[in-house]
């Protein structure tokens, strides 16, 4: 079965896909911090995950302890160590052949996200990430798309896509606001728990082939599966 979008409700489908832990198997940003951030970052991460510190407070604070001159090394490190989640290429190719716009929305910083995604970039329509200002002594995350808690709010990343059929693919607390603003959610790990806790319907996935198969079979576009 092909893609069936309910025309009365929404127009063209757009996927907003998370990067860390979704496109990648491991959190690239965590690996970067493990390698480049001075000690103390673990506590920041724990506080963020426990909700004691917002991502908006935590993420820029950790990067602000890393010298800007290490940016090129970080990008190389990220590119060399990244492991992509199985099914990425198949999902991207399916979206491209089915007129589904594929956007990567991530709270990671542009200077390492873009190099990591470079092999797949022709198949991705946009990458929305946090711009890094590397002109100062340390890395400054330019949180232009922040909300009260997210360093990059994925609900804000959806601005201008009001009439699109919005699909979130994600795994973490950073995906919550975007997921709640979406018509369909694909979730794993912590995002799946969040969706369950707030009673939202979602599709659980492991490999990105799972996402492709559900899209391809038209399953996620039935009314009973839409988030309401
Ligand atoms: Zn937010």
Strands, total number: 8
Strands in their spatial order, largest beta sheet: 3-2-1-6-7-8
Give the helix/strand class: alpha/beta
Bound molecules: zinc ion
Strand content: 15-25%
Q: What is the CATH architecture annotation?
A: 3-Layer(aba) Sandwich
Dominant shape = globular
Oligomer classification: single chain
Task: Indicate the mean pLDDT.
Answer: 91
The major sheet is characterized as: 6 strands, parallel
Q: Radius of gyration in whole Å, from Cα?
A: 17 Å
What keywords describe this structure?
single chain; 228 residues; alpha/beta; Rossmann fold; two-stranded antiparallel sheet; 10 helices; binds zinc ion
Describe the structure.
With 228 residues, the protein is α/β, with parallel strands linked by helices. It has a single domain (13-225), classed as Rossmann fold, CATH 3.40.50.1000. Helix content is 36%, strand content 15%. It has 10 helices and 8 strands. The chain has helices spanning 28-36, 41-49, 55-63, 71-81, 88-97, 110-117, 154-157, 176-180, 189-197, 208-216, and strands at residues 13-17, 101-109, 126-130, 132-133, 140-141, 165-170, 184-187, 203-204. The strands form 2 sheets. A 6-stranded parallel β-sheet has the order 3-2-1-6-7-8. The protein has a two-stranded antiparallel ribbon with strand order 4-5. Strand 2, helix 6 (110-117) and strand 3 form a beta-alpha-beta unit. The mean pLDDT is 91. It binds zinc ion. Zinc ion is lined by residues 147, 149-150, 153, 155, 177.
């Amino acid at each position: 079965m092909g893609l069936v979008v309910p025309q009365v409700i929404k127009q063209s489908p757009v996927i907003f896909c998370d990067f860390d832990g979704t496109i990648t198997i491991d959190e690239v940003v965590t690996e970067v911090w493990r390698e480049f951030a001075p000690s103390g970052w673990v506590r920041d991460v724990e506080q963020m995950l426990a909700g004691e510190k917002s991502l908006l407070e935590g993420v820029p604070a950790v990067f602000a302890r890393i010298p800007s001159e290490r940016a090129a090394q970080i990008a190389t490190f990220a590119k060399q160590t990244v492991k992509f989640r199985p099914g990425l290429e198949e999902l991207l190719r399916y979206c491209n052949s089915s007129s589904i716009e594929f956007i990567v929305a991530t709270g990671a910083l542009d200077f390492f996200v873009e190099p990591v995604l470079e092999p797949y970039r022709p198949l991705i329509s946009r990458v929305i990430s946090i711009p890094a200002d590397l002109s100062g002594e340390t890395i400054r995350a330019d949180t232009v798309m922040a909300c009260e808690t997210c360093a990059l709010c994925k609900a804000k990343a959806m601005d201008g896509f009001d009439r699109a059929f919005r699909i979130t693919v994600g795994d973490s607390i950073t995906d919550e606001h975007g997921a709640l603003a979406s018509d369909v959610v694909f979730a794993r790990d912590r995002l799946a728990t969040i969706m369950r806790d707030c009673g939202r319907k979602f599709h659980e996935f492991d490999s990105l082939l799972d996402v492709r198969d559900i899209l391809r079979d038209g399953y996620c576009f039935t009314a009973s599966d839409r988030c309401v």
